[in-house]
Amino acid sequence: MYVAANESRTDEDATVRETVFLVSLGEMLYHFLATTIDMKRSNLTDKLAARNVLWPYEKQKIKLLKKADAKVKTLLLMMREKSAAEFESFLTTLSETGQQSVADVVRPALCTFGQTGRNPLHYAYGMRA
User: Residue of 23, 59, 106, 129 with fewest CB within 10 Å of its CB?
Assistant: First the structure.
């Protein structure tokens, strides 16, 4: 009985550690993206809408905002709800809009931590516009 309880606790501990790790990675990437994406010089929202990553109403909501940081944070909140494929399209669109260096940081980070094929923003808690 002691061994079974110990094994169960180890599985729970591993799950908790993985969840904390995913949240930390998601938070780190969210803050990185929030401070590095340039909405002023790019047509990022237009391109994301053309790729069907953003819905027309999402694009309009971002365009109505005045401040660049509010636009970025709103975009990232929207991206949090997107699939892994849509997140990958987001990274590709960043590259195509003159922000290759941003995508070049995110992709290796996901690869290094075994998170390719996932949207890391799914795990970022406490994101606010």
Answer: 129
